[in-house]
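To whoever is on call:

I kicked off a structure prediction for a single chain this morning and the downstream step that reads the tokens threw a length-mismatch warning. I double-checked the sequence; it's 105 residues and nothing unusual in it as far as I can see. Pasting both halves so you can look.
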Amino acid sequence: MGTVGLTLALPWAHIATLASRDVALFVLLGVFAGVGHWLVIGAYRLAPASLRTPFTYLQILWATLYGWLVFGQLPDRWSALGMAIIVASGALLALRERRRAVRLA
């Protein structure tokens, strides 16, 4: 949807001339993003949600680490609280589902 919407706005956008190095980096970005999405789709097809969930929470850790390494920023207290709520909710849900599965077995 983003591609369609931005393509419609393209005639009115000011586009600077890109160096060949920049074009190559954009192409690499597209290739890596496409391969990454393809691998995520494969993971969703092959593995159960309970196995994939911890890797989803790792995204929070990586985003925080990259933010600190690249931009020198750490999350503020509200962002940290939000991240803690997300992780705690997922952990409690996983624990509840595990207990339910044991009880049903």
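Update from on-call: the warning came from a stale cache, not from the record. Cleared it. Sanity check on the structure: Residues 1-46 form one domain.
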